[in-house]
Each structure stands twice: as C-alpha cells, then as structure tokens.
Amino acid sequence: MKILDLDLGDRSYPIIIGTNHYANAEILRKYIMGKRVAIVSNETVAPIYLEKLATSLESYDPVSIILPDGEEYKSLNTIDSVIDQLLAARCDRKITMIALGGGVIGDMTGFAAACYMRGVPFIQIPTSLLSQVDSSVGGKTGVNHKRGKNMIGAFYQPKCVLIDTSTLDTLPSKELSAGLAEVIKYGLIRDKNFLFWLEENMVRLLARDPAALSHAIFESCRHKSEVVADDELERGGRALLNLGHTFGHAIEAGMGYGNWLHGEAVAAGMVMAAELSCRLGWLPRADVVRVEKIISMAKLPIRAPASLSVAVMREHMAVDKKVTDGKLQLVLFKAIGDVILTDDFSEKFLDDVLADLRN
Amino acid sequence: MKILDLDLGDRSYPIIIGTNHYANAEILRKYIMGKRVAIVSNETVAPIYLEKLATSLESYDPVSIILPDGEEYKSLNTIDSVIDQLLAARCDRKITMIALGGGVIGDMTGFAAACYMRGVPFIQIPTSLLSQVDSSVGGKTGVNHKRGKNMIGAFYQPKCVLIDTSTLDTLPSKELSAGLAEVIKYGLIRDKNFLFWLEENMVRLLARDPAALSHAIFESCRHKSEVVADDELERGGRALLNLGHTFGHAIEAGMGYGNWLHGEAVAAGMVMAAELSCRLGWLPRADVVRVEKIISMAKLPIRAPASLSVAVMREHMAVDKKVTDGKLQLVLFKAIGDVILTDDFSEKFLDDVLADLRN
Fold first, then answer.
1. pTM, whole model, 2 decimals?
2. Which of B58, B120, B250, B339 gives a 20 to 30 Å CA spacing to B289?
3. Which are the catalytic amino acids of B?
4. Which domain holds residue B113?
C-alpha cells in the first residue's frame, strides 16, 4: 500500500493506493464522520462491487443510490435524484457520501456532497483508470450543461481517495485506454522521464500488468497532487492539466455525450494541441509524431471524427471555462514536458488544425 | 453611509448601508472583478430598479436575467435556467453576478455564482427588509427541494453587500412585517436592549421612519456579522440564528411554498419555540406573552394555520438540516436574549405545542 498526501491545509487528504482493499472498513472508518454512509454507484459498477462494500460498512446503516451509467446522465437532473434519495432515507448533515465508480460517479457524488445541506463529507473510491489517475483527485466536482461540459460544479475536496488497482480487472479495454490518455498527459505536460517510461511500458499497461499499472497510477496521482496543492482553484498552473481538454470537450459535446469517451476525446485533443503548436513553430514535427505514436500505442484515436464540423467545434470551444474576457485560451506545447496556457495563436491556424485533424 | 466589515479572513467583505446608492457605480466598481456583470432580478423588482442599475454599469456590458417572483421558483430548475442564460450570453469565469432583489433572488444568485464554472464572484443588492437584515449577509445560498427548504446549496460569500434603505419605500407592508420577524429574532436570541428598543419603536418601523429602519438594519447586520464571523459553516453558534426556523420551515413547506412568507412562518415559529420553552419550565409565561406581543405589534402571525396537521409538520421537521444522527434539534429559550440548540425536550411536549398553537 502506498500513500500520497495532498497538502491543502485543513482540507488535506490522503490518496491510498493498493490492491483488494476497496471494501476495507478499517481504512474507511477513519474518514467516515458520522454514524451513516450513503454509497453512490451506477448500474454497471454496483453489481460487481457494491455488495462487498455495503456489507463491510453494515454498522453504518448504508444507503445505496444506483444511477444510470454514462456521461449523458451527468446532469443537474441526476443530482436532484441523488438528493431526493438522500432526503427520503433521512440522511442528515452527518452523512458521509462514498463515490464508488468512475469519473462520472465521482464528479456527481462530489457535487451532490458539496450541495447537500450546503455540504457533507465524501470519500472517493474510483474504479476506472481515468478516475484513479485524474478525476478522483483534486476536488473538481460537477455536472454537464447542454451548452457545455462541467459548466455547473464546485471545488469540493474528499476526505480521502481510496484507489484499488484490482478494480481495473473488470474494466473494458476501451476504458483502460481512455484512462491512459490522462496518464500520457502527465508525461506530456511535465515529465519527460515518465513519458519515456510510458513508451517503454505501454504494452505491459495494456496487458494490465499490476506492477506497471500501480507505478503509472502512483506517478499520475503524484503529479496531480503537486499541481493541485499549488493551485487548488485553478487560478494558474492547474489549468495546464487541461492539455487537449478544450479540443476534447468540443469533440465530446459535438458528438453528443456518451458517444466518445472523455479520454478518447482528450487523446485526439492532445494531438490537435501538438499539431497547432507545431504550425506555430513552437514544437518540432518529430515531437508531433511522437505524441501521435504514444497515443496510438495506447489504442486511442489521434483524429476527430470526419462528421464533426469546424463550426460546431468552435461553438463548443467558445464556452470553455478558460475563455477569459471573451478570448479563447489553449494549453499548447513549448516542448514535450513543457506546456503553457496562452491566447497567443492565430484563429486561422486553429481552424485549419480543426479541419485537417479529422479522419 | 455606514459600513460593517464581516471578518472571514480572505473571504472578508463589507456591508455598506446607505440611501439612494444602490446604482452607484463608484461603489460597485471596487467589487466587480472582470469586464462584465450579470444582474439577476425578478419580475417584480426589475421594472422598478433594474434599468437604473444596468445603465450605471453600462461599461460592464451587463446581462440581465429576470426570474419569476416567488419562493415556489426557488428550485434547481431555475438555477439551470440562470446558467443557461449565462452560457447563452457567453459569460466566462470573470463574470461578476449581481443579485438585485429579495431573499429568494439573493439565495439563488449566490448559489448560481457558487456553481457556475465552479464559482464566480457575486454582489448582493438586497431590496427587501428580510434580505437586508438577514439573508444577504453570511453566504448561505441555495434552493429548495420538494422534500425540504434550502436542502441544496452552498456556503459562498459575496464580495460585498450593498444595502439601500430607500428600496424599502416600494416594499409591500406584508413583506416589511416579514422582514421585521428576523429583526425581532436578533433581539430575542442575543440582545435584550435591542428588543427593548424594538418594543419602543415598532410603530416608527411600521411607518417606515428612515432613521428607525436604518438603525434596525444596522443592528441586525452587526449581530449577523458577529455570529457568522465566529462560525461561518454553522458548526456551532450560527445555528442559534435559526430560532423559529425549524417550526417556520415546516409551516412554509406544509402550506406549500409561496403561501406563507418566510418571515411570517418564522414569526409563528418563534412563538412555538417560546411556548415549548415555557412548558419545559425554562421560560416564564410572562416572557411568552412578551414574545407574542412584539410579534403581534409587527403585524405578524403568532399561530400556525388550523388546517396544518401535526403529522405534516413533524414530517417536514424530520428533514431539518439540524437533525443530527436522527435526532431533531431545536433552538429554545433559556431566557429572553439567551437561546440554545438542544435535543433535550420531550417529543410529547413538542407535539402538544404544534397542536395547540394553531388558529
């Protein structure tokens, strides 16, 4: 078992990485505040993992809330339903909520915890690679709006993040790859050595080699923790974690939530960021090829769908949260392992990249 | 102009009390963070006050969002509509939102600001007495759920509260009285001298004497600020501000939102708290009479409606946010000016009070 501490003053918490320990009541007990817990999961994850967790927490009279599975249900309506179920079960301010599932479950449970009676404690038990390496850490919670992804939410930190790598055994391959997109991201934005390690070990990761996965998760969480500790509310450096995300959100929203996985869209988006950086003269062509290669190795897309028009993508990009005083900002490359948030690019170059990088 | 400072470390802000200054751009400018503002108001307040405010802030390219008027619209659906309008107007993270209206507008604008892109700055310009003396100060924001009042929300502080007593000139008498319920509350929970002053000056307040109103507002905001500065997140003393509110919420919810004004329900609730305290032997009968008298002087109800059953009230009280580990807690009197939060009362006495204090 490895433990990382995310240092946020009185909101600090541990990220506990291990195997076969997701239902370990001895560990969880320390982070449960009152006498009851409410476990939020979805129709896919619950049948596999919920019973064991609920049984281990039997003394906390657990309430189980099962949501439909998919990004398309990440909405204010679903939050309303979670809150309705909490109230129906007479959960009070001392309830501790537990997110058991992937990124969508974590984001929604965290936001419901942030809003329920103006805030109750919650714990993240991420069961997908993407949520283990990225979304469960750092306190970004929220839901989508039909006009844009994650437009409604809160910065709200969990009491702990409990990562159990054995839950990846049941993860569909497509979702394993989607998680690897965020792993690759850390290499691209701030750690050339880690990128090199990923290039050497991608085959092991795809084969779910436990030691390789554990190393990739630990390094990803370490990077995420460092960035968040420096800039919890994304006033500066945290925005760099959004490499590929503005493009990716436009692909996700443009195709309709639930059609492209978040990680897949981010993967294609990171290639777009590299390509635009190259055309601006900031990144050598060989590095664009290197970005495309590692993403392809992870069995992820390097192009947006041909059916998606530039106009539709631009429409979605215009409501990105990083737009400042009306100006779009993008995370672009200065080099591999060195990125910046900038509005210093030609709109025409951007349109060309969007048009050209489609299948 | 009088200024009170609410001391909350890096979330501190001023409460600026004056007359004919709600649209003073020189004052507001200091608290507007970016280049644009979004003013949220309702169908009743907007026709009277919006144009002057929007004109004075013309250089901030103001977006106006007009909501329907009434507690029954204080819902997640309305928040969704506010966010939709912000996105449609291309408001980014640098938008400053301004609440122009009573408590419902303030609570919803604050919650929308807390959630929009995970948080944007906002300013309170309360136009009702109730919002000026209570809800605009202290950062409680949120909406109702059909199962309970203010069940969904956030603690989220404004950048400033700008109180203009001249906006009370257009306030319906019923709402003036409703605001006086919260003013009386401060006397009852922590300031016998202020209660005495209110007993002497209630006629002037009802006649809207500017000096009397200004004094009552200043004293109320001073009390509220002191309590909130000590306990922002309501882990202790702040709960005492809820005198009469658990009873009041049950009346409001039981009668259907929008039928009883919040202040009216709290008024009857404070009498219930006094009566229960008396029956527990904690408060002399003469003090119950005194509570009833000051509330009657303010033209507020001292009884719940006869049509409301004890069972319905208890049902709503059971989901109160102060319920802890399943046990209902109430703010009760030790004496006039001295209240406590306690679960140390007999359920039968409570039921009797609910049954007896109906018209």
1. 0.94
2. B250
3. 118, 140, 182, 224, 234, 238, 242, 245, 249, 262
4. 2-170
